[in-house]
Amino acid sequence: MKNCLVVDDSSVIRKVARRILEDLSFEISEAEDGMKALDICRKEMPEAILLDWNMPVMDGLEFLAQLRREPGGEKPKVVFCTTENDVSHIAKAMRAGADEYIMKPFDREIVEAKFAEVGLI
Predict the structure, then answer these.
(1) Beta strands 77-82 and 48-52: pairing type?
(2) Average pLDDT over residues 68-92
(3) Which of 26, 32, 62, 80 would disulfide-bridge 4, Cβ 3.0–4.6 Å?
(4) What is the sign of the dihedral through the CA atoms of 68, 61, 111 and 2?
């Protein structure tokens, strides 16, 4: 079973994402900020990361930059998930190493399609 780390400061978003991703046969771990997510990745690198942009302690962009510098940090497929919808934000996320980008609110169809596009399902 593939592992997906869901990183979002909203427990509601984490719960919704968990339900969708478990239905897609992922084992889920969760973090409420980028620093906790980085700690999890240092212990066991997931195959996929669903990543929020705006979080306390360490935001998604900073987490992604640090993740990609970690040993094995190039491997996870990272799907940014945020309310930021302007093209400059999307471009910044992709330049930082994101593999795909989805907007909140999201549903199962969107998550499934984006995870399929990056080869996770």
Answers:
(1) parallel
(2) 90
(3) 26
(4) positive
